[in-house]
């Protein structure tokens, strides 16, 4: 039970809500805030290593359960694991002995959630981003322990939430209230997040949360919003 309550990332992130019988819920919605450091961007010839901060807040009134979180970067930012220490251990090994992948740690984060909002039980997590092979791993500890996989394809990282994490127990769904994460790592000329320009003094980052059916499925299958990171 401890390992199957809820998990998410960088973020980021699962965004979900639980219950057995609900009245009509409002449309699902999320808010996204983001920033990069340093704010002065690199160029195509000389990309600059960045630390990306991202926060996603779920609208608790919509009572939704997430099955995926997709983070899309603009053309001025790039996310790549190439040339960096990569954790290739299986999930159980990483859960039981995180130090085996310490060289692949790439930031920090926190998450807050509830289990069953009809009788809410708060869940608090520490989120450790870990560099994998063509993916980011998000190691959760605290109220539960789990690993989420964020596959990187082009400019988008998609984090999948397993059915066991969406529904820790029969009829009981989990809900993330908010997720904050910071990712960044550099080794030689390789960097996890790089900037190669700055358009209109901003990097616009899009986040889409896809929803799973729960006892009161949302009126929409997903919610999308954007965050703006200032740059120059």
Tags for this model:
about 230 residues, single chain, mainly beta, three-stranded antiparallel β-sheet, 2 helices, disordered N terminus, eleven-stranded antiparallel β-sheet, about 5% helix
Major sheet: 11 strands, antiparallel
Alpha-beta classification: mainly beta
Radius of gyration, in Å, reads: 17 Å
Question: How do the strands of the widest beta sheet line up side by side?
Answer: 1-3-11-6-7-8-9-10-4-15-16
- Total domain modules: 1
Indicate the percent of residues in helices. under 10%
Ranges with pLDDT <50 over ≥5 residues?
Answer: 1-24
Shape verdict: globular
Order of helices and strands: EEEEEHEEEEEHEEEEEE
Q: Give average pLDDT, whole number.
A: 85
Strand share of the residues?
Answer: over 45%
Distance between the termini: 47 Å
| Beta strand count | 16
Count the helices. How many?
2
